[in-house]
Amino acid sequence: MREVYISGAAMTPFARHTRSIQDLVQEAVLGAVRNAEIKLSDIQAMYSANVFGGMILGQVLVRDLGITGPALYNVENACASGATAVHLARMALQLGKYDTVVVWGVEMLSQLGGGTIPLQRNDYKTELYAAQGLTLPSVYAMRATRYLHERNLPRSVLAEIAVKNRAAGSRNPYAQQRKEVTVEEVLASRQVAEPLTLLQCCPSVVDGAACVVLTTRKPTNSAKPVRILGSAVQSGHQELGCGDILDGEITARTARLAYEEAGVDPSEVDVVELHDAFTIAELIYYEALGLCAPGESASLLQSGATSLGGRVPVNPSGGLLAKGHPLGATGVAQMVEIVWQLRGQAEGRQAEGARVGVTQCTGGGIAGVDHAASSVHVLAV
Amino acid sequence: MREVYISGAAMTPFARHTRSIQDLVQEAVLGAVRNAEIKLSDIQAMYSANVFGGMILGQVLVRDLGITGPALYNVENACASGATAVHLARMALQLGKYDTVVVWGVEMLSQLGGGTIPLQRNDYKTELYAAQGLTLPSVYAMRATRYLHERNLPRSVLAEIAVKNRAAGSRNPYAQQRKEVTVEEVLASRQVAEPLTLLQCCPSVVDGAACVVLTTRKPTNSAKPVRILGSAVQSGHQELGCGDILDGEITARTARLAYEEAGVDPSEVDVVELHDAFTIAELIYYEALGLCAPGESASLLQSGATSLGGRVPVNPSGGLLAKGHPLGATGVAQMVEIVWQLRGQAEGRQAEGARVGVTQCTGGGIAGVDHAASSVHVLAV
How far is B239 from chain A (nearest CA, A)? Predict the structure, then answer.
């Protein structure tokens, strides 16, 4: 099967932008194409990931670049949209259908009025849950409460995730939030859903775009060639109330598939970008991704292993908590960060000598345990 | 490369439904699974095509069927959404990633308030055009006016398309419009955009779902195995005003790719489902699909070759004009009809002895000439 490389990577800063969504995507696409040292005319297909932009958005986004002839696929999978688009693109490359494609993710959330991410339409259950207060923050809050109770831990352990990721984000010019915070500040910030305070929830009033060039031609540009060794997408099937809310089952299942395809053991992973939409999520995903044994996530965090300079830095970009979470863009932006890390280009926040990186997104319905989409990728130099 | 079969096909009637969107999809999925004589647990991945249903819709649609564990891809490409989903699914099957998947398309347009299909958001050009009255019906009306002028033809030739397709639709229990009409009735119906009258525009206040099972295992059920020989998706790049509005360039380009892959000459095609959103579209697509020489579409129609019982029946289902056009569902429903035709199961509207069938969708921005998506599939027994 053909090897698939990421030969170009670029993103816009994540911020409240006053530019158009077209501008954001074009900056990311042109940046990735330039980074890959290819021409726009080398692009054989395009994959556009977005959640809220409307019909046939991808074609509208790149029309003014004059590259709208090739096949374009508009892909949506909630928080995993961008990663799903990469997954689909990789399959077409492995098949030999194309040899060079671009994948971008984009979202303009500042135009949606802010607040909690709008819930999906057409779903009586989501409406029913929401009417009872079961929004995403409150479900993650229940997971956090259960986590602290089961493991007899203080709230500060949650806050430490925010402190770690904001510290990393302060070194990332692409992050929306670039100010370091302390445990005290995190705990003292406004309560969103007890025990989750404002600084424990990712910013969702944010815009941005990210793009990668995927190719089966061994890249000839000067950067180290990054390969996609494993790529898995799975969906969720767990009903709320039918299982353990601390169980990251979907994520663990997806990760197993990705590691298996990559032939990589979790112990070999050097750097991770994971889906820290809320502080508690990062702790749950440490275990789901096999970065530590079940029950050991707080110890892993407190050992410093997942901080910059640690054994396996997690969210060196600042993660969703610092960078912000423009849904469709997030999965691709995670890969951009890992590409930079594996190439040794993550100035000021570099995981030294990193050779294997992982990205993970899990999103969708009620806290990603019901009608959810999950994606895990394993990248390597 | 692995052969890909359509082993199961089913759809709901296209109608204004009072049932939920979940109900429609589940009827189509269960019907296709039953038709393929497989079990729900045989499904390894799902492709969900939809335009207006919102975030992570596919997962919500099948949650209650209990098959939400496997990968699910939400795909959108305007009118070509369903066909694009089939195209992506086929690539994964050819690669050997899966051996059995389902692809469905669904749309609930009756909940959107009716009228012209809502325009895409985030596009200043579409807004600019719309403000000048350049909606889809008016652009197709310009194409119709030009067509009649260039070729010195009477308006009745447009009406004959509606008469032909409504006659076919009257034999299709899945069509929304099942009453035959005459040329006089078509011409006397309310003017929408001169020269296009109401009966020359496809109904867009309509709901429906369609599903196919794709597999690389040679089907063992009793129906004739239908193969997908060619599948192409392309995008549009033609600016309004930069070319001939009668030129179906995107469609012709897509068709060439699909025929080439299939190793099929247009003269070998026995039956066609094409994108007759307006009567003029069918005439343009006759030429773009190579069913006749350039300039010969009216003669082809008037020879009776494209009517039921003719050499190459076009839109034996009634097409969009009779069946209605629930966007996300249309591309998959076209394939369901061609599967029935190739199996000899299109009772009352059968293209006798058909062995090669074609489906075509072209949609998106301004009449499918700008920021558009186009898809052509070649199927055979």
Answer: 9
Chain A hits for B50, Cβ within 8 Å: none
Cα B80–Cα B33–Cα B23 angle in degrees, nearest 5: 70
Considering only CA atoms, which of A323, A331, A317 is closest in space to residue A375?
A: A331
Per-residue pLDDT reduced to its tens digit, B258-310: 999 999 999 999 999 999 999 999 999 999 999 999 999 999 999 999 999 99
Nearest to B68 among A71, A253, A371 (CB): A371
Average pLDDT value for chain B: 92
CB A77 within 8 A of CB B73: yes
Q: Which domains does chain A have, with CATH numbers?
A: 5-113+208-215 (3.40.47.10), 124-201+228-380 (3.40.47.10)
pLDDT on residue B241: 58
CB–CB of A91/B87 below 8 Å? no
* Model pLDDT for residues B368-379, shown as the tens digit of each residue: 556 789 999 999
DSSP character for A264? -
Judge residue A266's burial from the number of C-beta atoms within 10 Å of its C-beta, 0-12 exposed, 13-18 middle, 19 or more buried: middle
pLDDT-flagged residues of chain B (< 70) = 113-124, 237-242, 365-370
Residue of B nearest to A78 (CA): B56
Q: How many CA atoms lie within 13 A of A227 on its CB side?
A: 16
ipTM: 0.94
**C-alpha distance from A304 to closest chain B C-alpha (Å):** 34
Q: What is the pLDDT of residue A94?
A: 98
> Residues, chain A, total?
381
Whether the bond between A225 and the residue before it is cis, its omega within 30 degrees of 0, is no
A6 touches A228 (CB < 8 A): yes
Q: What residue of A is the nearest CA neighbor of B77? A: A56
Q: B22: distance to nearest CA of chain A, Å? A: 8
- Give A355: exposed, middle or buried? Use CB within 10 Å, 0-12, 13-18, 19+: middle
What is the value of pTM for the model shown? 0.96
Among A288, A334, A357, which residue's Cα sits nearest to residue A174?
A: A334
Whose CA is closest to A351, among A320, A381, A319, A306?
A: A306
Just list the catalytic residues of A.
79
CB-CB neighbors (< 8 A) of B59 in chain A = 235-236, 364-365, 371-373
CA B72 to chain centre: 22
When CB atoms are compared, the residue of B52, B70, B371 closest to A60 is: B371
